[in-house]
Amino acid sequence: NWCHSRKSPSPAMFAGLPELGISNGEDLKETLTNCTEPLKAIDQFQTENGILLPTLQSALPFLDLHGTPRLDFHQSVFDELRDNLTERVAVIAEGKEEDRFGKLEELLEKSFPLVKMPSIQPVVMQVLKHLPKVPEKKLKMVMADKELYKVCGVEVKRQIWQDNQALFGDEVSPLLKQYIVEKEGALFSNELSVLHNFFSPSPKARRQGEVVLKLTQMIGKNVKLYDMVLQFLRTLFLRTRNVHYCTLRAELLMSLHDLDISEICSVDPCHKFTWCLDACIREKFVDVKRARELQGFLDGVKKGQEQVLGDLSMILCDPFACNTLVLSTVRNLQELISQDTLPRESPDLLLLLRMLCLGQGAWDMIDSQVFKEPRLDPEVVTRFLPAMMSVVVDDHTFTVDQRLPGEEKNSPAYPTALPDSFTRYLQENRVACEMGLYFVLHITKQRNKNALQRLLPALVDTHNDMAFGDIFLHLLSGHLTLLSDEFGSQEFCSVIFDRFLLTSFSSKENVHRHALRMLLHLHHKVLPSLMETLVKTLEPPKQSSEPVKELFNQLTEKLEAQKKSPPQPEEAPPSLDLGLHPVTVPTTTPTTTAAL
Known about the structure:
Blueprint: H1 25-34, H2 38-49, H3 54-65, H4 70-94, H5 100-111, H6 121-130, H7 136-144, H8 146-151, H9 154-161, H10 165-187, H11 203-206, H12 210-219, H13 223-240, H14 244-258, H15 262-265, H16 271-283, H17 288-299, H18 308-317, H19 319-338, H20 347-360, H21 362-368, H22 378-403, H23 420-428, H24 430-445, H25 449-455, H26 470-479, H27 490-498, H28 509-522, H29 528-538, H30 546-564
Helix pairs in contact: 4-6, 5-6, 10-12, 10-13, 12-14, 13-14, 14-16, 14-18, 16-17, 16-19, 18-20, 18-21, 19-20, 19-24, 22-23, 22-24, 23-24, 24-26, 26-28, 28-30
């Protein structure tokens, strides 16, 4: 065939031919070296190694008359035969014959010696792909050859990976890193909005992410690989405390659920619980029916199977699950206030707190390997939540009082102090702290400036500095866009910056980034004199990371552009009336902003 080609053949093209009794370039070289009549030798070589079809020999001269090279003819025939054989392999594998895989193994034995021959390699890879169990010897040969390993299908790689955890880990590790980078990138997104934030994408949309789809494809129906990935996620979560690994654990299971991979879903004891919770996350609310289902799963953990609590706690530690549980808790508390009911009298609220407590205790449970539901401090229900409800009642009372005629007013000013039990539990209990943070987000979303100014300074000292975590700061900065006009008040800015963000920005770079993100969007609302001071304060030191420096540069560029061209009047944002209206606090003397 290649005798008619002008290009020199690569030795790899003919690797393995002698094993099958087929002549290769070395045989032709030897023939030409020892012969006396080269043209006759070439003619004989072509006859012996060409297409063994007697009727074809008389037809070939017609191609010569038309100027068609023999190489083109043989190549077209070869391509056609290869494509037909590749299709035939798939048909045999998908058939119902009992010996179908025996036939493929026989074909593999014949073709594998030519696996490095580029023109034959697709056929060999097709056979390997459709064999449910590739002979171990062949797998080792593929694994040992980097080029073969690279081009073989994921179906073959799964069989290699399941007995080579380190190799599988090398393949998965870059994807896990990419996933974390993407999640953290979303938290520091340049977009600042209450409507489009970290929690906006639906669960199904999140599962269409590149990493989740790749991992799902890599796992296929292989339970062993699925278990390996879960172990990687547990280990990384334990090592880093990064809750995004918990999100990936839930997303991966639900991605396999979407594809109806029953081989895995049926053996994962968390499947039905995760499925039910996924529906709640989609609705951003845990209704009574689903709450009962979730409770049934938790109560159904049998003695001797307590280890499943470790996985359930990881799934509940997922920020999307936690977000749903706390939003449902805040909504439940609002209903209790309207019904004059205490938190301890609500079974629905207690169940939400139980799941929240299990999720918040995920790291401790996996670290200690003591698989037992953590006990919620009863005073969270009997003291902290009533204290939080009293803040709401204070706000309602003040609002009503302001609407009364002047002579009937009782309270001259909005309350500023907070109940001791409220601030104490913010500092000492992580479940209480999580609810306190979402309560602040709730009143911010209602544009309740007075309540925000009362509560925000208390968040400087919270359990494990949760108030300075990326998720809370991401949500808070987005929610504050609803109060953008208030940034023109020195008193309001003093609360946001002096008494909260600037208390830790120098020691926590993420706080620095979120403060710059906020100013990047709201700088035109801040008083020029205060903005100048903030810019000096937030100027990053030399050792700061590039993202911080980049944000600061963007801010200074915007401020320069603003000086050159005065800002255009903006349209008012759409009203989000959620039932609690802000009331202006009467003041006698404006509060002096603390030194920055």
